[in-house]
Amino acid sequence: MPQFEFATVFWPQLIWLAIFFAILYFGVVQLTLPKLGKVITAREDQMTGDLASAEKAQSEATQLGLDYDAGVAAAQDAARAQLAAARLSATTAVEGKLAAANAALDEKAATAQAALDAARNKALAEIETVAAEAATAIVEKLTGNRPADADAVSAARAALA
Question: Whole-structure pTM over 0.90, yes or no?
């Protein structure tokens, strides 16, 4: 049996393997690796940009939320101020109407009191006259003498007072 010699059998295969590896390395790896690096860099830049735009959008949304809350608070304060002004205006109007009504009632009461006083004075005058006449008639019947009208009126006033 012939003796197997390592150097004669494997050297040509090893050389072809080295050539094929060199072709693969320089052809595939050297040409593809920079393109792959560019793609990875581009993706990394895109992700960084997307993250930055997301952070910017989040900060804008937060600012919009704060502006909205401030706007709502300002609107509520304005509404409260308008409500207070309306209440004050209504209170002032009601107090004015109440004062006018009280003045009208006071005027009516004064007019009624004046009419009542006039009626009372008239009634008292009539009562005095009737009492003086009755006293004069009684004294005249009892004594037969008619007293003076002035004496009868003064006696009636004294008796009614």
Answer: no
